[in-house]
Amino acid sequence: MGLLEWLGITGGCEKEPVELNDKNFQDEVTKSKVPVLVDVWSNGCQPCLALVPTIKRLACKYDGKIKVAQLNVGAAPKTVGKLGVRGTPTVLFFDKGRVVERVVGMRGQHYYEDIIDNDLLHEQPQSQAV
Fold this sequence. Notes:
By secondary structure, this protein is α/β, with parallel strands linked by helices. It has one domain (11-119): Glutaredoxin, CATH 3.40.30. Helix content is 35%, strand content 22%. It has helices at residues 3-6, 25-30, 46-61, 77-83, 109-120, and strands at 18-20, 36-41, 67-72, 90-95, 98-104. The longest helix has 16 residues, at 46-61. It starts with a helix and ends in a 10-residue tail after the last helix.
């Protein structure tokens, strides 16, 4: 795997994430029937901007399996406070309405995929014959 691929900088499918705010957070995340990835971001945050393409690719790759959403701290100050977010970007992984994983800072796409596959979807890696 090359550096660009590790960072999630590859071509392919992208899908817009669900936009969250204080009003729709509970319905879209807490009451969701599927696991949810929430990208918490802020205006002027360069790592947040760099993470956007990865978030869109994850939304496309896991479409129908999980919900991928974005939460701007300026649009949801009450929710951000309740979640205890102290810095951006912060990516929260929800399963059955509860946070099961929290990642502060930017990581490569494969890092988020591992969390989704192992902690949200509980998929075991395919064993390879030797």
